[in-house]
Amino acid sequence: MLTPKKISRRRFLLSGVAVAGAMVVGWGVMPPRQRVRGTAALPLENGAVALNGWIAIAPDGSVQLAMPRAEMGQGVHTALSMLVAEELDVALDAITLIQAPADKIYANLAVMRETLPFHPDDTGRTRAFASWMLGKVAREMGVVITGGSSSVKDAWTSMREAGATARAMLVAQAALDWKVPAEQVRAENGVLYHDISKKSLGYGAIAARAALGQPGKVTLKDPHSFRLIGTSVGRRDSRIKSEGTATYGIDVRPEGMVYAAVRMSPVVGGKIAGITPTEVVKMPGVLAVVDFSNAIEEHYGAGAGVAVVARSFWQAKQAAAALPIRWDEGANAKLSSEAIYASLSNALETDDGDNYHQRGDMAHAASALRTVKSLYRVPYLAHACMEPINCTAQVKDGKVTVWVGTQAPTFARRAAARVGGVSEANVILHEHLLGGGFGRRLEMDMVAQAVAIAREAKGLPVQVIWTREDDTTHDVYRPAALARMTAGLDAAGNIIAWEAKTAGGALTHQFTKRNLGMPGAGPDRSTAEGVYDMQYEIPNQSINHVVVDGPVALGNWRSVGHSQNAFFKESFVDEMASAAGKDPVEFRRTMLLNHPRHLAVLEAAVTKAGQAPEGRAHGVALHQSFGTIVAQVAEVSVQDKQIHVHRVVCAIDCGIAVNPNIIAQQVESAVVYGLSAALGGEITIKDGKVVQSNFADYPVLRMNEVPMVETVIVLSAEPPEGVGEPATPPIAPAVANAVFALTGQRLRSLPLRLA
Questions:
Q1: How far is CA 709 from CA 46, 263, 647, in A?
Q2: Residue 311 burial (CB < 10 Å; 0-12/13-18/19+)?
Q3: Of the chain's two ends, which shows fewer C-beta atoms within 10 Å, N or C?
Q4: What φ, ψ does residue 639 adopt, rounded to 5°?
Q5: Where do the domains of the chain lie?
Q6: What crossing angle do the helices spanning 660-680 and 562-580 adopt, rounded to 10°?
C-alpha cells in the first residue's frame, strides 16, 4: 500500500533556519577548512614526495595525483588531471593517478550544495549563506562521492589550488637555491627557469626540498592564460579500454578467490521462509550456502537473499538456480503497477503536497481566456549498466578488504565495516573502473552482500556477481510519477498562470536511510527539480509535489528528478504553444526575455538544426539541470506507428568547457541513454514482482537505432557546471514534441508509443 507523506514546506524551511541559526554562532562564521593539505598519507610510488594532499612528484619529474572520483566512462580522470596539469605547469602525460586515501579533503562539496532547494534566479544573500554553510557541513562530513554531474564543478577550485600550491612551493625553493626573487622564477612544462642567469631545474630534482618548505604566494591562473584547459585532449583511459587491459571491478582476481551467485526474493520486500541445501552442497565445486538476509536487509536495497559459494561462477550459478527456497512473500504479494498508479492518482486529487515554488498570485488564473489541463505519466526505470553488479570481499585477520567499482567510497567503507564487524580503519578499499554507473553504483547492496558472504568463507576472497536478471529485477529504480499540469492563456496567447502538481516516491529519503542511517524527512528536492526551478518567465506559478511512499526501492538514475520533470514541463510548454496557435520555438523565446543564456542556447540549437527534411519533423526542448543549460532539436519520422529518431542537435552552455571533446562524448552518451528510456524503458510490477528481466524486455538502443548527435558548445566565461547528465532530460520531450508535429498525437506517457 502506498501512502502520501504530509510534511509542510513551513516545517521544512523552519527546520533549515533552526539548523543554520545554531551553526552561525561561532563555527558558522569561521572560514571553511582548507582542502589542499590532507591528514592521510598518499600511497606513493617510485620515490615520490608529497607536496600536498593531492600531488606528489618523483625524482624523474613524473607527477602522482590522488584521484578521489570514479571513472565510469564520463572522462573525469582526464578532465581533473587537466586542471592540475594546467596549474602545475606540466604536460598531461606526466601525470599518473593513484587512489586517494580516506581523507575529508576529498569530500564532494558541490554535490551537497546541489541539494539546496533554491531557484536558479535566486542570487540573494540567503542562498549564498545557505551554500556557504552547507559547504562547511559537507567539508566536515567528508563524504567522497561521484555523482550529480559535480566532479569538475567541485574540483574547479580545490584541484587547481592544489596544483598552484605545488607550483608555488617549487618556485619558492628554486628562488631560495638560486638566491633570486621568486617573481623571477617561472615554471613551464615541468621545468623551473631563471631567465636572467639562464639557470634551469626539473621539478624532480627539487621536489624533495620543496616539500619541506612553504609555498609563499599562491595565485591561480587567469583563464586567458590557459594553455590546456579548453582544448580537446584525448581521453587518458581510451587506450586501455580499447586494448581490453582496463581493470574493472569484475576483473580482479586476488589469490584464492572463489565465486558467489545469489538468489534474492522475487517479491518486493519478501523474506526467506526456509532453505533446503542438502543436495546443492553436493554439487561440483560448491563450498557453502550462505543466507545473508539478516546482515543487510534493513540497510541496503536488495533485501533478503541467499548465496551459493563455489570454485567457479558457473558452478555457483548452477547450484544457486537449483537451491530449494521457500519464500515468505509478505504484504506485497499482490502489488501491481496498476495499484501504484492508482495510489499516485489518488494522492494528486486528495493531498496538497509540499510547495516548492510560489510566484505571483494564482488567483489570476481565473482571468485566463483559455485553460489547459493535462496528466502525464512516467514509469519506474532500471539503470542497465553494462558491467554486471559485482563486488569482491575478503574478511581475514580482523580486516575487511574490498575490491569494487563504486561511486561512493565513503559509503563503501562504512558498509564494509558495518557488515564485517570491524572499524572503518580496518577496511581496505581497492577502487576500480566502473562499467557504467548512472547512479546505480552509489548504492552499497553489492558491497554488503559480498562482505556478509565473505564472513562465512574462511578467509577466502569471494567475488559476488549478479546476472542481468538479478540486476533488472533488484535495482533501485527511478521513481514512477504522475504530473497534473494546468496553465491559463490570456487573449494574446501568453501564459499568465502555471500550476504543476506531481506525485511519486522520494528517492532521497530512501537513499539517506540506506547509506547514512538517517530517516528521510521533509520535501525532497529531487521530486520537483526541473519544474519548480524552470527558466520560463511566467508571472504566476505554483509548483507542488506529493510524496507517496511505497515498498519499491528507489535510487538515483541519470539526471535524477530532471529525467521525468523535463518531460512533463517541456511537453506541456509545447501543448500551450499549440493552444495559443504559436510556433513552439517562438513561444519559448517570448518567455526568456530576461534569460539571455537560455535564449542563446535555444537559438544555437535551432539554427544548427535548420529545417526538417520532407517526411520528418523537428521537436524542441529546453532545460537546465546541474547548472547547465541544454536545448535539443530531435529530427523524427514515423512509419507503421514506429518512432524513428534520425538526428539530435544539442546545444549546451556548461560554463567554461574544460575539454570540448569529453563534453561532446557525454552529450552523445546522455542522449542515447535518455532515448533508450524514452522509446523502450519501463519497469512494471505484477504480483509483487518486477516483470522485466533482461534486454529482451527492457531494451536499450542498438547501434542501428542510434541517431546522429551533433553538439554545439556555447562559449561561456562562467565556472564549469555539470556535463554528464544534463543532455538526458530534454530528449524525451523533444521526441514527443516532434511526434506531435508529425501526427497530431500528444504522447503524455513514457515510453513513447503511438496508438
A1: 44, 40, 6
A2: middle
A3: C
A4: -140, 125
A5: 49-234, 249-331+389-465, 337-381+477-743
A6: 80
Per DSSP, the residues of 111-166 read HHHTTS---TT--SHHHHHHHHHHHHHHHHHT-----TT-HHHHHHHHHHHHHHHH
Please write the tens of the pLDDT for every residue from 211-246: 999 998 899 999 999 999 999 999 999 999 999 999
Contact 443, 286 (CB under 8 A): no
Pairing label, strands 541-549, 495-504? parallel
DSSP state of 339: H
Whether residue 726 is preceded by a cis peptide bond, meaning omega within 30 degrees of 0, is no
Amino acid occupying residue 148: G
Question: Which CATH number is associated with domain 337-381+477-743?
Answer: 3.30.365.10
- Bridge partner residues of 403 (DSSP): 392, 430
Q: Kindly report the CATH number that applies to the domain delimited by 249-331+389-465.
A: 3.30.365.10
Mention every residue, 6+ apart, whose C-beta is less than 8 A from residue 586.
none
Cα gap 82→85, rounded to integer Å: 5
Total residue length of the chain: 755
Residues 6+ apart with CB under 8 A from 691: 683, 684, 685, 697
Distance in angstroms (rounded) separating the CA atoms of residues 508 and 520: 7
* pTM (predicted TM-score): 0.95
Q: How many other C-beta atoms lie within 10 A of the C-beta of residue 34? A: 14
Q: What is the CATH number of domain 49-234?
A: 3.30.365.10
Residue 79 has phi, psi (to 5 degrees) of -60, -45
Q: Cα–Cα distance between 514 and 337 in angstroms, integer?
A: 24
Q: What is the pLDDT of residues 651-671, one digit of tens each?
A: 999 999 999 999 999 999 999
For residue 549, pLDDT beyond 50: yes
User: Is pLDDT above 60 for 171?
Assistant: yes
Q: Residue 503 to residues 5, 139, 529: CA-CA distances in angstroms?
A: 11, 33, 13
Q: Please name every residue paired with 583 in a beta bridge, in sequence order, or none if there are none.
A: none
What letter does residue 92 receive in the DSSP assignment? G
Name which of 465, 454, 468 is nearest 287 in CA terms. Answer: 454
DSSP class of residue 433? B
Q: What is the pLDDT of residue 755?
A: 87
Contact yes or no for 480/341 (Cβ under 8 A) = yes
Question: Grid coordinates standing for 563?
Answer: 529525467
DSSP assignment of 221-254 equals PPGGG-SSTTS-PPPTTHHHHHHT---BGGG---
C-alpha cell at position 465: 556477481
Reading the block at residue 492, the C-alpha cell is 494574446
Residue 106 half-sphere exposure, CB side, CA atoms within 13 Å?
A: 26
Quick one: which of 442, 390, 388 has its CA closest to 260?
A: 390
In one-letter notation, the amino acid at residue 718 is E
Q: Is 577 helix (H, G, I), strand (E, B) or coil?
A: helix
Strand-pairing partners, residue 481, are 378, 504
DSSP annotation of 551 reads S
Tell me the pairing of strands 191-194 and 689-690.
unpaired
Render 299-337 in DSSP notation, one character per residue. TSTT-SEEEEEESSHHHHHHHHHH--EEEE-GGGTT--H
Whole-angstrom distance, CA of residue 605 vs CA of residue 633: 6
Percent of the chain with pLDDT over 70: 95
The answer to whether residue 9 scores a pLDDT higher than 50 is: no
Which segment of 70-74, 109-113, 745-749 scores lowest on mean pLDDT?
A: 109-113
**Residue 285 DSSP label:** T
Q: Work out the number of other CB atoms within 10 angstroms of the CB of residue 279.
A: 11
**381 secondary structure, DSSP code:** B
Distance CA 180, CA 197 (A): 10
**What's the whole-number average pLDDT of the chain?**
94
CA 533 to chain centre: 19
377 near 748, Cβ under 8 Å?
yes
Phi, psi of 381 (to 5 degrees): -130, 140
